[in-house]
Fold this protein.
Amino acid sequence: MLLRSTNKLRLFFTLVAIICIVIMFLLGFWQLDRKAQKEARLAQIESRQDASALSIDEIIDSPEDYVDFPLMLTAELGNQTFFIDNKLNNAVAGYEVLVPVQTNYGVLLVNLGWVPGTPERRQLPKVIIPTANQHIGNVYIPSDNMLIKETNFNYGRFPVRMQQIDFAEMEKHLGKDVLPFTLRLQPDKSGHFVRDWQVVVLPPERHLGYAVQWFGLGIAGLTVFLLTIINNKKRA
């Protein structure tokens, strides 16, 4: 009975060890895949940003096909401001500021850039809306973080502090149809806003480093596993 229990225990730990080793190698390959995706994304951004600026008429039917392309917009910016919370710049907490622009197809939200927060959390920073009528930036479709829940339901009361860019909620605040993409204005060092757009959270090199770590752990685990089997056979 004791021998049978010992064999079952060994089998259990063997299966756990094999599963852990396989998972570590899979995580390594996953990080390599993420590295390839980031490299392709950065190459796409570089190639598209060199293209000629498009008009909204050219992209309106399929804006998802024109992400990262430059877009020229001739219109006056609205004064209804959306402050997207919890945006960091050089480890400083602040907001991204978006304003609406009325187009022939609906409201386009223009991202003016980042501003630092105020010492008093309840007070939003004061911003100066650009008065120029011509704006150039890049088409951007923000991702929807399902873990973030919107908390501002005081519709129509501006300025609006939001947890993320949520087109459905913004439509309720504006009372108008909102287009499913934004315009990130190009950098302007003389302006009031910081436009250091972070196109990828982690660079490809970081994913390569993580892959090496996972493969290293997998190889170490496999080595220990094989040495344990060899030692057990020698004792038998």
Q: What stands out?
A: The beta strands are 70-74, 82-89, 92-103, 106-116, 134-140, 160-162, 178-185. Residues 2-49 form the longest helix (48 residues). The chain has a mean pLDDT of 88. The chain has two domains: 2-42+204-235, 69-185.
